[in-house]
Amino acid sequence: MLEISNYSKSYGGDKLAADSVSLKVESGDIYGFIGHNGAGKSTTIRAIVGVLDFTDGEILIDGHSVKTEPMECKKVTAYIPDNPDLYENLTGIQFLNFVADVFQIGDAERSERIAHYANAFEITDALGDLISSYSHGMKQKVAIISALIHEPKLLVLDEPFVGLDPKAAFTLKEIMHDLCRKGAAVFFSTHVLDVAEKLCNKVAIIKQGKIITSGTMEELTAGKSLEEAFLEVYDA
User: Fold this and answer.
1) Nearest partner of 207 among 67, 16, 72, judged by Cα
2) Which domains, ranges and CATH numbers included, belong to the chain?
3) I want to staple 134 with a disulfide (CB 3.0 to 4.6 A). Which of 54, 100, 138, 163 is the partner?
């Protein structure tokens, strides 16, 4: 579903923010991408979703090149940044309908999906309010719902649990599992290693722009906790 081959990115100078990053996310995977701040997680994620241009390497989504077939990639991808910017002069429902219009989702399908996810995140009664009145957690919930409207094959999230209350975080985890049971894939960055250990079946650890290890959770932990495994390879 997602294949990154020798992706590199520099913001100027000799230091690479991403250095020959390669990994593969298959249908059904919940893939964790972990590393310290500045390790290259967000740089890589922004390149995957087409926000950040790059020249070195290749990124394929569902067999399509992010470089040469960006629209085909965007049709099947959803992205939730760590601090989503929403149109604050719209109401929640206006914003969700706008996103549904972009993806050409019919009235019946969008109504059903919006109602389902709004109920799941317990924000149905607030959808008529202006987004400017929402808390950070409410905005995060609306961003998540907007990402799910077109039933993406690849869900890409940057620190998705920041700002979510425990019940909303649990709901998002259940949605991730449900998407993957239907054949989609989830790729997300997180600092919360306990969450990654319980949720992911595969993990990659990035340090100073380079993938230092990747594989299944069982391979990486080998009887240890993910935190212990992370510190062991990161400090080596």
Assistant:
1) 16
2) 2-76+152-234 (3.40.50.300), 86-150 (no CATH)
3) 138
